Amino acid sequence: MKLYLINGSPNGRKVLSVVRHLGLEPELIWLDMFEGATRDPEYLKLNPNGQSPTLVDGELVLWESNAINTYLCEVAANQSLLPTNAADKAQVLKWLCWDLAHFNKALGVIAFQAVAKPAFGLGESNQAVIDFYKEEFDRYGPVLEAHLENRKFVVGDDWTLADYALALVEMFQPAMPIDWQRFPNIVRFYERMRENPYWASTQAIPEEVGRKPSNS
C-alpha cells in the first residue's frame, strides 16, 4: 500500500491521521508542491486531478480523502472510526457529505484566501470571495455549533471519520477572519482535535509545509 501526500496539507493530514489511528503502515510518498510534483505526468496517471492525497493498494488507485478513509476502515481490523451499525454508519456518512457540501467548503476557501495565500506567497487574497464564503459559514456554522452542544465527539462516544473530516482546517482556525466567540463549541472541538495524538502527529513544521519533511 502506498500513500501519496503533501506535507501539512489539510486533506493529507486527514488521511494520515486515520492511517495512524488504524495502525496501518503504508509507504508514504511525499510530494513537493513547490516543485510541481502533483503535475508530473506519472503522478497524473494516478490522480488526473493533480491533487493529493492518492492511495495505491495493489490494483486499486483511489483519490478523494473521504473515499480513501472509508476504504482504509473497510480493510482495517477491529476499527471503530466507521461504525458497522447501519444507523451510526449513516450518521458518519451524513456528516462527511455535509462537510464537503457546506462546512469545510466554506472554511477551506476562507483559509486559503485569507491565511494560506499570504503565508505561502500564493498571490493576493480575494476579499469578495472571502466575504461570500463567510456568509456561507454564517449559515452552516451554527448547524455544527448546535450539534456539538454537550458532545465531545461528532457521532457517538468516540472518534470517527466525521471528527477527522470536520477538523480539516484546524491549523488555520486561529488566524481566520471569523468571530469565533459565536462558535464556542466548534472552538472546543478544534481544541480536542489538537489533543488527539494521531491528528497532532501530522502537524507539519511551518517552513516544511508543502515540501518533503526533513524526517522522512
TrEMBL record:
InterPro entries referenced in this protein's UniProt entry, alphabetically: Glutathione-S-Trfase_C-like, Glutathione-S-Trfase_C_sf, Glutathione_S-Trfase, Glutathione_S-Trfase_N, GST_C, Thioredoxin-like_sf
Domain GST N-terminal: 1-80
Domain GST C-terminal: 85-216
UniProt cross-references to SUPFAM superfamilies, sorted A to Z: GST C-terminal domain-like (SSF47616), Thioredoxin-like (SSF52833)
Pfam families on file: GST_C, GST_N
Name listed for the protein in its UniProt record: Glutathione S-transferase
Lineage: Bacteria, Pseudomonadati, Pseudomonadota, Gammaproteobacteria, Alteromonadales
Family (UniProt): Belongs to the GST superfamily.
